[in-house]
Write a structure and sequence with these properties.
The chain is an alpha+beta fold and 417 residues long. 34% of the residues lie in helices and 23% in strands. The two termini are 20 Å apart.
Length: 417
């Protein structure tokens, strides 16, 4: 895998619109009747520049034989003559090229360098603030140590003593939160929003162990209190004390794609809505996860689990399309995806239309589970609650349980990788 950066990327886009600008002071126009210049190429500061550059780069990749991945437009793939694949990832002017050989990646980068001036950065070490490490066993590690240290110093949480083993206290302790407590004034409320934003970025990028914490604290953004502010500081302090945690990708040679899904019935004390949590694995590593409050109140734990399963099935459908286009899953008909659930009743509802009394309250949209099971796209499989890897995405876990979940989610201290 190789990384490159396009210098002055926005200056390479072609404009379809008719745009004019006043010439700089140092430019003298030959025609005295003309006092403006027409733009032929995009420049920095134009609203169209980002899209113009993206179209230019997409056209260049298409001329090299790449096809855009329809379910993720930042990805382009190409099947080579020997049957291997080359994948290009684009984010603005940052480019990652992955192939089975270094010669193939350099060939792509050289072709792009013939069009524009690019800087070859070698094997990726940092991208979008994430540290990338190639480990001895061939897997990759992603971490955000520097970002966490910077934010921890900014918000003065480096010396906090609480929260070293888990980002949130237990459910019993959280139940003591008082919704009627005085709301924070605007400056403090803004700080709370900033802290939640930091935790969301960490949780979405590499720190799956912060997913429930960010979701929980985000629920109270419009009406945060001092108690919630203290929890937000505790969570960032926990991130600082565990800043060396690294997400390991590609820890297995088995491309088996499967998902664990769980729910916490009535877990939101403010609304009594349940919480959905799921995590998907490919090559033994998590590639997507979520923790969010369900949009409606479930009438039973079975209904809550079934609603969570429906949300996970939607993730499955998107990931199956994406993984097929990347060549991870065989095309055109990959094997069914295993969906692990720890609730037998919801599994029976998904397999056949029984338990009618329990399904009366379920909206028709949630029966996507039953449809995909009938089409043999998804297989519902029971897993004991003790082996449910999505449990920590639905509620806070105690120190030992939280540490065990970190290991199952392939989060490792770098010194132990």
């Amino acid at each position: 895998m190789e990384q490159a950066d396009v210098e002055g990327a926005y200056l390479n886009g072609n404009l379809d619109e008719e745009l004019y600008l006043t010439p700089p002071d140092a430019v003298v126009l030959n025609n005295p009747r003309c006092n403006v210049l027409r733009l032929r190429k995009s420049i920095y500061g134009l609203r169209q520049s980002g899209r113009a550059w993206w179209l230019e780069l997409s056209d260049a990749l298409e001329s090299l034989g790449f096809n855009r991945v329809q379910d993720e437009w930042g990805l382009h793939t190409r099947i080579n003559k020997d049957g291997s694949s080359t994948i290009v990832l684009i984010y603005v002017d940052d480019i990652l090229v992955a192939a089975t050989s270094r010669d193939e990646t350099l060939k792509v980068l050289n072709s792009l360098n013939d069009r524009w001036r690019t800087s070859s950065l070698g094997p990726p070490q940092h991208i979008l603030g994430l540290r990338v490490q190639l480990l001895p066993n061939g897997s990759y590690g992603l971490s955000q140590t520097t970002y966490i240290e910077t934010m921890a110093r900014k918000y003065e949480v480096t010396n906090l003593k609480g929260g070293k083993s888990a980002p949130l206290p237990t459910v019993k302790q959280l139940s003591t939160l008082h919704p009627s407590s005085p709301k924070l004034e605007k400056p403090q409320a803004q700080t709370y929003l900033e802290l939640v934003g930091i935790l969301l970025w960490l949780a979405n990028a590499t720190r799956i162990d912060l997913a429930y914490t960010a979701s929980f604290l985000g629920r109270y953004s419009p009406s945060c209190t001092q108690q919630l502010m203290d929890l937000a500081h505790r969570a960032l302090g926990y991130a600082y004390h565990t800043r060396e945690l690294t997400l390991i990708l590609g820890n297995s040679k088995d491309p088996n794609f499967h998902i664990f899904v769980d729910s916490d019935f009535g877990g939101c004390l403010a609304t009594r809505a349940s919480t959905t949590g799921y995590v998907s694995f490919v090559y033994g590593s998590p590639i997507s996860w979520t923790s969010r409050r369900q949009s409606s109140v479930a009438s039973s734990s079975t209904a809550a689990e079934y609603i969570a399963a429906a949300e996970a099935v939607q993730e499955i459908m998107w990931l199956r399309r994406l993984l097929k286009q990347l060549g991870v899953l065989p095309s055109p008909k990959p094997p069914p995806t295993l969906l692990y659930i720890d609730n037998q009743a919801s599994i029976h509802i998904g397999r056949k239309p029984v338990y009618f009394a329990r399904t009366k309250s379920l909206d028709i949209k949630y029966h996507i589970v039953r449809e995909r099971v009938e089409k043999k796209v998804v297989i519902l499989k029971y897993v004991p609650s003790t082996d449910q890897l999505a449990d920590g995405l639905t509620k806070p876990l105690g120190g030992p349980a939280h540490h065990a979940a970190q290991q199952q989610w392939q989060l490792r201290l770098f010194s132990r990788v």
